Amino acid sequence: MDILIVPTILGTSAVIESRYRTGTPVRVTVDSSGVRSVEPTTAVVSLVAPDDMSSVRSSFCDQVHFFALLEETEPWIAGHEGGPTISVAEAFALGASMAERMLAETAANRSSDDPSHSCC
Fold it and tell me: Which CATH number fits domain 2-106: 3.15.10.60, 3.40.50.2000, 3.40.30.10, 3.90.105.10?
């Protein structure tokens, strides 16, 4: 999911090429305002709702994949109970929302840590 978040954070565009194991390659073009193209148009992204976030990389990041066809998700879904798949556009929107929240929290934390913003 982080590759979909980076263009929002940087205000730039990116071309993403990915495949799950030996599956069909997926090519996605995004910029900070959204998904510009998806090839093939049938591509989806897997998601998980981890129980344990002590290691974000292994519990979440390593479980988010691009699949060219819904049928290619079947082996992955079999190993990840109820792991949903969503469209690339939905994944981008989710990633952008996450990035915006993280940036807002970071800005708020920096403001509260800045002694020049003290009221008393």
Answer: 3.15.10.60
**Within 13 A of 41's CA, how many CA atoms are on the CB side?**
0
Q: Could you tell me the pLDDT band of residue 68, with boundaries at 50, 70 and 90? A: very high
* Percent of the chain whose pLDDT exceeds 70: 81
Q: What pTM value is reported for the model?
A: 0.75
- The residues spanned by each domain of the chain are 2-106
* CA-CA-CA-CA dihedral for 101, 105, 107, 112, to nearest 10: 160
- The three-class DSSP label of residue 114 is coil
Separation CA 98–CA 92 (nearest Å): 10
Q: For residue 88, what are the CA distances in angstroms to 51, 68, 93, 112, 116? A: 24, 10, 9, 36, 43
DSSP code at position 85: E
